[in-house]
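Page 42, continued from yesterday. The earlier attempt failed because a stray header line got pasted into the input along with the sequence. Redoing it now with the clean sequence only.
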Amino acid sequence: MTLTLVHDWLNQRGGAEDVLETLVVQFPESPVYTSIYAPDVMPEAYRTWDIRTLWIDKLPGIHKHHQPYLPLYPAAWGGLELGGDVILSNKSGFCHGFHTAPGTTHICYCLAPTRYVWGLDSYIQREGLSKPIELALRPLIAMLKRWDYAAAQRVDHFISISRDIQQRVKTYYQRDSEIIYPPVDTGRFQPSSRVDDYFLVVSRLIPYKRIDLAVQAATQLGVRLLVGGRGRDIERLKAMAGPTVEFLGYVPDDQLPDLMARAKAFLFPGLEDFGITPVQSQAAGRPVIAYGGGGALDTVIPGETGEHFTEMTVESLVNVMRDFDPARYSVSKMRAHAEMFDRQVFVTELNAFIDKVT
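This time it went through. Structure tokens are written below.
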């Protein structure tokens, strides 16, 4: 069986790239088609992959600022035809929009229906786009919605990463999908015999992650909060932080497991499509306090692996943190729940799905 991988862009690293890395390990002979590739900002290991870019990769400045070229992505992907037995697209943008040769099966692993098409306002806030870019985007949205919907109809089978995404695929694309959760390397994280008195956040520090809720809640309660990560929101967060909030900066991969394993609880205040860090925390035997929406509805079980706060406000989070007792949660149950999202589970379920539909 020949299998080709398709990915939106390779000029930044996040959860989508974690999925892609697992796919490349699982299918090492498969080429990776992507719109743009900036090798200088991606892991060195990527340079050993068979990466094939589209014509827009040559446009000036696109590696650093790909959003202004948004209107060109449908044309770029729509002009590509791929053949072979199976095409597996790892999609949050427009990369599902290519055409397939007769006899080729296209499986779309949907990280999210295209955010800036179906949720423009929240995408603008998420990416911090300037007003001129916003004004230029809005007239394009009706056209992009038509293209995106039509492209989704060319997909043979959809897989969604959470119940929230499954519902969005049904709502926006009118397509059914099965759920296969994204792969998490749970083996990196183990419970510790020592638990310290601090709450923990590890995230990119950008506005839509809502780290401001955690900072303000910890400041109001006078409890210790460690904030790991970097991003453009750092100065705003520091300005609102009290003396019990400490900013760690970038947390190296080898230090993260111990930091999570010793936390009183992990805070996950934003609305995410899935969210890997809550699973990592549970793998380390620590409960999670998460906003009750998006992927956290799948990954955090109230009363067993953590708690949800119901409104995206400081007061709602404070109410949960104030009475939070980490001793109420079983380390073995949290660990067992996290293992449901392990990489090997992802690989097994994905292979079974491919075998079923081909």
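Notes: The longest helix spans residues 343-357.
Reminder to self: strip header lines before submitting.
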